[in-house]
Each structure stands twice: as structure tokens, then as C-alpha cells.
Protein 1
Amino acid sequence: MKKAAIPILLMLLLLPACSGDIDKPYHVAFNESAWNTLDWADSGFNDSAEFEAEVYGYIEAISDYCDRPDWYKAYSEKHGDDYELVINYIWVSGRSHVEHGYESHKYLVPNVYLKKDHLENGLAPIAHETTHILFPHYSALSYREGLASYMQDKFGQNPDFRTLGINVHRFAAYYHTAPLDADMRAQYNDVIAVLGTGDAAELKCAESEMRPVYYILSHSLTAYFIDNHGIQKFMTLYESDDPISDFDGLYGFSFNDARAGWLSFLESDAEPLSTREYIAYREELDGILAQ
Ligand SMILES: [Zn+2]
């Protein structure tokens, strides 16, 4: 009996050190041979183990911050108790996305596609796309993209290519005040009108030429809610069936008042990018991707 006590004690001491990914109810995978097809010199990763460790770190940090440690259960509820949750990271030429894009919640196939060009230049939205895997069910598309962009900003080891580390509210304020032509200004107003509603028109905005603006405004609105009222309330809103009618009960004021508060914050407290700064951002992005 006494002899056995030492190995057991040793095992207990060693357990935290090897809790790595052995006991996790999910795994991260990618095609090792595909790794060698990319030029990783400017990616920020020295080897595939670093990439893997970064992804596991995102999953822990983001699910922790959002207080959703059981996020993975959505997958076994969908596919059955024997389902082995393996999140696959795949490099592609097109834009980064998760399997089935905005409809991923219908199928829950945990594949993440990362744009090669962004990956090779340290701009891949790894934390962003991973957030979509963790929280596939959303009340409004703008909150889906807003939360993912917020997490890329907060936990990403590399900047969001849409802001390159510049405060997102400065971009939102820029679009709010920039001299857009009449057609773009009308589209901008359409985007503002549907953000946070969960209306099908959100999808039209995301897939129109206003896509970059839609993503920036979604990120800005989401960051405004999280930073002013906390992540807990935001996650409840994110998981609501009706984000407009549930808003009052959750926040104590109407969504319309909240949106007006955000717009007035953009107008008076967020210093808009100047056109010169906006052009400099575009040039920096082009420069990084041209390497
Ligand atoms: Zn996204």
C-alpha cells in the first residue's frame, strides 16, 4: 500500500503538465503535407507545432472569456455521442471561412479554411474563424461577424487585416462621416438599418459591395456593447431567438436607443480616420500582401 502511494502522488503531480490535448473533448488537425506547400517565412510560425498550440490557445481563451466551456456539446448534440470533434484547418486560395459559411450552424461541420495569402503574411483570421466554430448559433449575422472580429482583436497573435491594429471605431467613424457617393451612402444607411436585427437583409449587406463596411460596423457595434455592458449580456443576446424584442429585458433599454447611443459615440467620441490615414492603411495592407 505504502509503495503505491509514491507513484500515485507522482501521477497526480504530472497530470497538469500532460493535460495538453489528451483529455480534451475536441482536437485540432491539419494536413501535415499541405504545410510544406506554403512559404511560412513571414507567417509568424516557425513550425506546425506552433500553429497547433496557437489554435488550442484560442479555443481555451475565447471559450473562457465568453464563459462557454461546454461549447463543444453542440457538435455531439447534432452528430451523436460517438462523434469525435476534430477541427480541421485547411489552406485555400479564396477568402477565409468556415464550412457552409453563414449557414455553418445548420450542418456543424468543423472545417476552417484559411486564405493562403493571409496565412503566409501573418494576417490570417485564425482567432476569427475559430470563434465561428465555437459559437455557430447566432441571433444576428452582425453579431456573428462582430464577435469573431472582436476575438481576433482581443486574442489574435496577429492583427485583423480589416484594421491592422487600428481601433475599429476609428474605421466606423470614418465610414460614418466619409464623403461616400450617393449610392454608397444609401447602401451605408441600409447597413445601419439592419445591423443587430437578425433580419435576412443582413445577409444581403454582407454579400454586397458594402461587405467591408458591414464587417467594420458589425465589429464596432459589437465592441461597443461588450465593452460598455459586458460579455455575459452580449452572449445572451448572441444566443437569443429574437435579438430585438429580447434586448429590453436584457439591457433595460431598447435596441433603438442602444444603436442611437453607439452612433452618437461614433460621432462625438471616436476620432474618425482621416482620408490620408485610410489610404495609408490600404497601402500598408497591399504592401504586406505584395511581399
Ligand atoms: Zn467571419
Protein 2
Amino acid sequence: MFAYVGSAGLAFGLRPRAWSADADPTLNTAVSTAADAFNVFDLEAVARSKLPIAHLAYLDTGVEGDMMVRANREGFGKYQIRAHRLVDTTRVDTQVELFGTTWPTPIVLAPVGSQCAFFPEGEIASARAARAKNHLLLLSTVTTSPVEEVIAARGPPVWFQLYPTAKWKITEALLRQAQAAGCPVVALTIDNQVNAGREALARGKKLDPRDCRTCHLPVPGSLFRLKPMFDGLDVSMLSGVITAHLTWDFIRRLRDATSDEDRSEGHSHRGRRHTGTAA
Ligand SMILES: Cc1cc2nc3c(=O)[nH]c(=O)nc-3n(C[C@H](O)[C@H](O)[C@H](O)COP(=O)(O)O)c2cc1C
């Protein structure tokens, strides 16, 4: 008897073609709501058509000539999923437990600051999306929506991403605020030690016909305007959230400043912050 055990391959006799909006933007015309998108690349194509060029350049690129973003993508492309055939997949369990909470999948919304620059409802819209799909949300220090409102829209727990500042008092105040709002875990971003060389952003700004100074005031501390975590804090001595002095001493200090119930976790920007250091 002949038994054929193999993978099912269907030949449609079509010319090979890239069926993704990324490869062929004309395929993207049908995406008018998020529900129309088949994958995130469909949404990326919509963002390209809708966002002002300077904001798009900030959102969509890495640093220097994007060398590290490309290298990371190529690197991840080399990973493949090894399928085990003849295994019952009726029940697939992708659950993970993180600091005492069980999540249905390991997919989390990484911290992304300044979201109101891309969509008027900013972090609140992301919080609603995270709630709808039950994903963990990490809220950025430079959120443009108040932490309390984000937690109300997502439902707890929401983790807080900490950009430590050069002034411990301010860093501590940010932590306290997140703790008081109910964030149980702090994700510390550790690769923010030098200013990133954002070439694409500089080019985007040149091409953007709008007057950027309407929002980005050319005065010290303007970075913290519209960033509610910094409301009421004295940021006059801060030029940004770059912390050159971040060492293990800071980790010890952070640990001492958080109670037993609060936990911390490391986070990095991958190719968005440095070139030459792989993800
Ligand atoms: C527009 C934008 C804003 C970001 N803002 C933050 C932030 O405020 N804090 C932070 O720790 N990481 C921030 N990140 C970094 C992301 O959390 C993430 O680490 C990075 O995009 C790499 O992941 P990816 O390769 O999947 O994009 C930001 C990324 C983007 C694209």
C-alpha cells in the first residue's frame, strides 16, 4: 500500500507575485479601517499616506542610515518555526506568565511615546486595542495621555516604561506617579545614554512644509510640554531624557525605591537608538 505523508502544496498556476501591501502599495487601497488590514504592514502603508512627513520619519525609521534596523530585520528573518507534524493542535497554549499575571500570548504593546502626534486619541486608542485583544501594554514615560486615563481605558495591569532622567528627584517623582496610578511593573529603558543620530527625522523636517515651532517650541524644556508625566515637575535643569550615567548603581537605587510588590524589567529600543549594536 502507498501512503503519502507530506505537506499540502497547492499550485494555482499564477505568476509569482508579492501579495502584500508593503511590496505592492496598490493592494492597499481597500484598507479604510483597522479591521480591513490583514497585517501590520497594511497599516504601515496607510500611515505613510496619512502622516505628515516629519512625524512619519520619526515613527518609521531607526538611526543613522537605518543600518541596524535592516540588520535586525534580516537577522530575525533567519529564524524559522519548526513544525512538528502529526501532533494534535486542537488546543494550542500560547500563555505566558509575567510577574504573576497570565497573558494569553507573549505579544505585548512596546512603549511608544508621543502617540498623540500620530493620532488624536493617542495612547487611549492603543489602550482600548490592548484591552480588546487582552495584550499587555507598556506605557511610555513620554506618554501624551495621562497614566490614569490609560489604565482606565486598558484596565489594569499596565506596566510603566521608565526613562530615567539626569535628576534622581524627577526620576523618583515619575516612579511615584506611576505607582500611585497603579502600575505594578517598571520597564527600565537602558539604551538612552547618547542622543540618537536621527538622519531620517532631520530629512523629514526639511521636507515638511508645516511650521514645527507651533508644537515644538524653541525653548528649554519644551520636550516635556504635552507630556503629562512631567506636569508640575521642575524640568528647568533637564534637556531631555538622556542619562549618560546609567550603571548598575542606578538599578540598585531603583530597586530600593520600589516596594516589594513593584517589579522591574529591562527594555531597549533595538535599532532605533544605536547603530552597530544588534537587537
Ligand atoms: C515612534 C516610536 C516611539 C517610541 N517611544 C519609546 C518610548 O517612549 N520609550 C521606549 O522605551 N521605547 C520607545 N520606542 C521603542 C519601542 O518600544 C521598541 O523597542 C522599538 O520600536 C523596537 O521594536 P521594533 O523593532 O519591534 O520596532 C519607540 C518606538 C517608536 C517607533
